[in-house]
Amino acid sequence: MLPPAAVLTDIEGTTTPIAFVHEVLFPYARARLPGWCQVHCDAPVIGEVARLAPGAMIVDTLLGWMDRDEKITPLKTIQGMIWAEGYAKGEIAGDLYEDVAPALRRWAGAGVRLYVYSSGSVEAQKLLFGHSRAGNLNGLFQGFFDTRLGTKRSPQSYTDICRGTNVSAAECLFLSDVEAELDAAAQAGLRTCQLVRPQDRTVAGNRHAVAADFAEVAKQFGLPKLA
Asked: Which of 180, 181, 182 minimizes the C-alpha distance to 193?
């Protein structure tokens, strides 16, 4: 079988330690949320929150969504805007597994088309890769997708990504640590691989290829190997 022409990757638990998201990014946004909402009370995204939770207190609603790790677009947008301020101030920097940046650079340099699909907003994705400890990696990607496209557990989302990028599903490899997301991608015809990072205590499933890191992904799928 030919190597994939494109790689679509998740972030949390795949390129980035779950601990970074839950122990750095989320607490950073939570601590600054009340003040941010006060300053930006007229922002359109605040209106979106009010529409989804009519009559409820905006800050309480957002904090509740955070506590439940809800994949709600306005929440993700606001978190991304708060993180943007943190990245700009140098108070946070994107954390990636050591194998990720070398693999992405190698694959992009060999002509493999790279895309991101995460529940975090596109803006948050670009901040993480643009301010990563390995440097600015945004230029390696040809597209970023978030839940505004659709849920990651819906096959239609992956069909839409392939159509929008003009990549056939059979030529696209989706990387994620979540088996249900991989199931959806496989139903849409994509090739799939579950990242099982020991640090994240991911439990390997039995319905998809499994890899411990991006170097192993390269070996299994015939992608350019890391130098």
From this structure: 182
The C-alpha angle 183, 184, 188, rounded to 5 degrees, equals: 115
Residue 140, token pair as written in the block: 């390696």
53-103 confidence digits (pLDDT tens): 999 999 999 999 999 989 898 998 999 899 999 999 999 999 999 999 999
89: Cβ contacts below 8 Å, ≥ 6 apart: none
**What is the rounded CA–CA span in Å between residue 72 and residue 77?**
9
pTM here? 0.89
Tell which wins on pLDDT, 221 or 121.
221
CA 11 to chain centre: 4
In the chain, how long is the greatest CA-to-CA distance? 57
User: CA dihedral in degrees (68, 69, 70, 74; nearest 10)?
Assistant: 120
- Give the number of other CB atoms < 10 A from CB of residue 181: 24
- By CB atoms closer than 10 A (0-12, 13-18, 19+), residue 203 is exposed
| Cα–Cα–Cα angle for 191, 193, 196, rounded to 5 degrees | 170
The radius of gyration computed from the CA coordinates of the chain, to the nearest angstrom, equals 18
Q: Is the pLDDT of residue 31 over 70?
A: yes
Q: What angle separates helix 122-130 from helix 73-89, to the nearest 10 degrees? A: 20
pLDDT at 227: 65
Output the CA angle 55-61-64, nearest 5 degrees.
145
Kindly list the structural domains of the chain, giving each domain's residue range(s) and its CATH number in brackets, ordered by start.
Answer: 6-16+94-221 (3.40.50.1000), 20-89 (1.10.720)
- Written as six digits, the tokens of 137 are 């990696």
